[in-house]
Fold this sequence. Notes:
2 copies of one chain form a homodimer. Chain A is of the alpha/beta class and about 200 residues long. Chain A has helices at about 5-20, 30-35, 40-45, 60-70, 85-95, 95-100, 130-135, 150-160, 190-200; strands spanning about 25, 60, 80-85, 105-110, 120, 125, 140-145, 165-170, 180-185. Chain A has 2 domains: about 5-70, Winged helix-like DNA-binding domain superfamily/Winged helix DNA-binding domain (Arc Repressor Mutant, subunit A), CATH 1.10.10.10; about 80-190, NAD(P)-binding Rossmann-like Domain (Rossmann fold, 3-Layer(aba) Sandwich), CATH 3.40.50.720. Chain A is built from 9 helices and 9 strands. In chain A, helix 1 (about 5-20) crosses helix 2 (about 30-35), helix 1 crosses helix 4 and helix 2 packs across helix 3 (about 40-45). The longest helix of chain A has 15 residues, at about 5-20. Chain A is globular, with a radius of gyration of 20 Å. The interface between A and B is large, with 60 and 60 residues. One nicotinamide-adenine-dinucleotide sits at the interface of chains A and B.
Amino acid sequence: KIPGMAITRLSIYSRILAGIDDGRTISSKELAELSGHSDSQLRRDLTYFGQFGIPGKGYQVKELKRRIHSILGIDRTWNVALVGAGNLGSALARYKGFELQGFKIKAVFDNNKRKIGRTLGNVTIQDMEELPRSAKKRNIKIAVITAPMEAAQELASLLTEAGVKAILNFAPVRIFVPSKVKLVNVDLAMELENLSYFLAKAGKG
Amino acid sequence: KIPGMAITRLSIYSRILAGIDDGRTISSKELAELSGHSDSQLRRDLTYFGQFGIPGKGYQVKELKRRIHSILGIDRTWNVALVGAGNLGSALARYKGFELQGFKIKAVFDNNKRKIGRTLGNVTIQDMEELPRSAKKRNIKIAVITAPMEAAQELASLLTEAGVKAILNFAPVRIFVPSKVKLVNVDLAMELENLSYFLAKAGKG
Lengths: 205, 205
Ligand SMILES: NC(=O)c1ccc[n+]([C@@H]2O[C@H](COP(=O)([O-])OP(=O)(O)OC[C@H]3O[C@@H](n4cnc5c(N)ncnc54)[C@H](O)[C@@H]3O)[C@@H](O)[C@H]2O)c1
Ligand SMILES: NC(=O)c1ccc[n+]([C@@H]2O[C@H](COP(=O)([O-])OP(=O)(O)OC[C@H]3O[C@@H](n4cnc5c(N)ncnc54)[C@H](O)[C@@H]3O)[C@@H](O)[C@H]2O)c1
């Protein structure tokens, strides 16, 4: 089984490679240094995903990029739905950085009648009732939940019934999805707790 | 060394405990089930931080909460500065969930003259020039960077010079801080790549 952190590191290596000329070769040592990980960690990570490069000669940058993009699924475009057009949802919908990685927010849903019909980024906020039909029509496989925690579970069930196969959940509550659906939770308050843990340990607060 | 994931799981156990009556005791088995982790993982996690509960009798909920809050540093309040009052920064500054965990956004900075002086959440956006003085005056130990990636490194240096000891960086770029400063990076596009990896692997996209 591939550890979750190896997939995250693959994303990091891919970001570093984005700044390096396709025509070059690069050693595992150099790529590791640029990404802030060890050479042995990088080699171990890549072996999870197959055979890369020629031992002793390093990696062809163009080939390495191509393969990592294919493994991460970012060599294609994904249509994304976002549910909950509030403060956080609006910021995410307007962000141009997602599209650069192949994630296009194609539909935004909300249950607040005053918001429905407004534009956000380059989409129009739709009524929740349109979600099943719209998700199927636009072949939406990925959804982001930026609605209040009380609504999160119901929304996850609605999204999986509408054919969504992967959910990024920002609501700070545990939600359950069918085993075939991939769920990633992001709890921004927990990221701050990671900081306060270190400060408390170092006696700084 | 305590693995990073053990600290994140401590935050998860603390969230689950928040919904349980102080007067109760709880077994490691029950707390593990509620948090979605195994009983053995929970016991192993807690041993990193000391001796908890009475073997065979479970944990006193009140006592366990108190100790986990103290370890995570969320038994007190932290004054937080936020730099970059754009889409993401505004959403974070308005979010009431951080204060519930003890993180108060006390100061927001931006270099856009049109934004300075406006209110955001319950603070007034200040000019970057005020950052050193204001961070010291308000005893700010934690800062959040929601500025563009080109500015992130310079801002990290400015913040550490102003006495900030921990930084949560949302800009998708690698930044360097002195060894005594704790840095946590959140790359939201990478969270989506985590989803596309699973979909690509399952042949769903
Ligand atoms: N804003 C942040 O910085 C932040 C940080 C961490 C976590 N979160 C979490 O993200 C979520 C959104 O936070 P926010 O600050 O944007 O809140 P918000 O109140 O600004 O926005 C929530 C939006 O969801 C909509 N909504 C409510 N119920 C719905 C339903 N059943 N179906 C569809 N839409 C519904 C509301 O109309 C509103 O537009 C919350 O769960 C919050 O805990 C936000
Ligand atoms: N919006 C999102 O959903 C999102 C998602 C992922 C990552 N990010 C990252 O978060 C950061 C902020 O994104 P955003 O969408 O809010 O951008 P934005 O352009 O809306 O906001 C950036 C803010 O930073 C200010 N700023 C620029 N240079 C500065 C400097 N040197 N000092 C102080 N303030 C400065 C700008 O005036 C603006 O108010 C970016 O690095 C972005 O890549 C954003």
